[in-house]
Write a structure and sequence with these properties.
Strand content: 15-25%
Largest sheet: 8 strands, mixed
Keywords: Iron, Iron-sulfur, Metal-binding, S-adenosyl-L-methionine
Number of helices: 7
Radius of gyration: 17 Å
Number of domains: 2
Pfam family, one: Radical_SAM
Organism: Murimonas intestini
Structural class: alpha/beta
GO molecular function: catalytic activity; iron-sulfur cluster binding; metal ion binding
Helix content: 25-40%
InterPro entries: Aldolase_TIM, Elp3/MiaA/NifB-like_rSAM, rSAM, rSAM_sf
Shape: globular
Order of helices and strands: EEHEHEHEHHEHEHE
Length: 229
């Protein structure tokens, strides 16, 4: 599994995929990504140190992802990230966190000592589909509410059961309330959630302009950031 890469198109940055303790929620219907976790603190810390040793600070920006939220990374790894921020003159971090951690984001910003762009896996702003089908356990009411805590939502498109109207609304909310965002085109995996090819084709045609939009990253494959498998 590749765990380090450089993103050289939109928002240039280094990106690392680290190991963490199991996702605190871990029940999203569409997700089998949570299998990349561990309960062996020493093994995780050792692997993460090896991956983080590749960070050069070339762009002054580092994104850290794991199979859950940044708050589930081992303490030793968080300390190492903070040290690397100082040593490599990192001026901005990207982290991801679940809605349940919204009240802890500011403490993490203070701990790291640099601005953090916090991503959140929204998947959709349609609450019924998000909660009753995708089982996100993120019962916010609006995009505005999310924007009060998080900087960059991650949306998901192309799922059977999703509608064009849902996607139109999601993109509208992304553009109205956030300066950055990610759109993940769903890829079939080991879960029972299935990709809707017709919906994907419609989205890629209607929203082709997002491919050149500097504020939105469209991931057609889950490995488009160059990490994972």
């Amino acid at each position: 599994m590749e765990r380090y890469n450089k993103i050289t198109e939109k928002n240039k940055r280094e990106i690392v995929l680290l190991k963490a303790f199991p996702c605190a929620w871990g029940k999203c219907r569409f997700c089998d990504y949570i299998e990349d976790n561990s309960r062996d603190r020493e093994e995780m810390a050792r692997l993460n140190e090896e991956v983080l040793s590749r960070v050069t600070g070339e762009f002054g920006v580092l994104e850290v992802i794991n199979s859950g939220s940044c708050f589930e990374l081992p303490r030793e790894t968080l300390e190492l990230i903070r040290n690397i921020v100082r040593e490599k003159k990192i001026s901005r971090l990207f982290f991801e966190a679940h809605w349940m951690y919204r009240e802890k984001l500011q403490k993490m910003r203070e701990y790291m000592g640099v601005p953090i762009i916090f991503k959140i896996g929204v998947e959709t702003f349609d609450r019924e589909f998000r909660e009753n089908y995708l089982n996100k356990h993120a019962a916010f009411e609006s995009a505005k509410e999310v924007s009060e805590y998080f900087d960059s939502p991650c949306l998901m498109v192309g799922i059977k059961g999703q509608t064009r109207e849902m996607i139109d609304y999601d993109i509208k909310m992304l553009k109205e309330h956030f300066s950055l965002g990610t759109v993940n085109v769903f890829t079939n995996n080991t879960t029972d959630v299935k990709r809707d090819e017709e919906l994907v084709e419609w989205f890629m045609n209607k929203y082709a302009d997002l491919l050149s939009d500097p504020s939105v990253e469209v991931l057609y494959e889950k490995t488009d950031f160059g990490v994972g498998d």
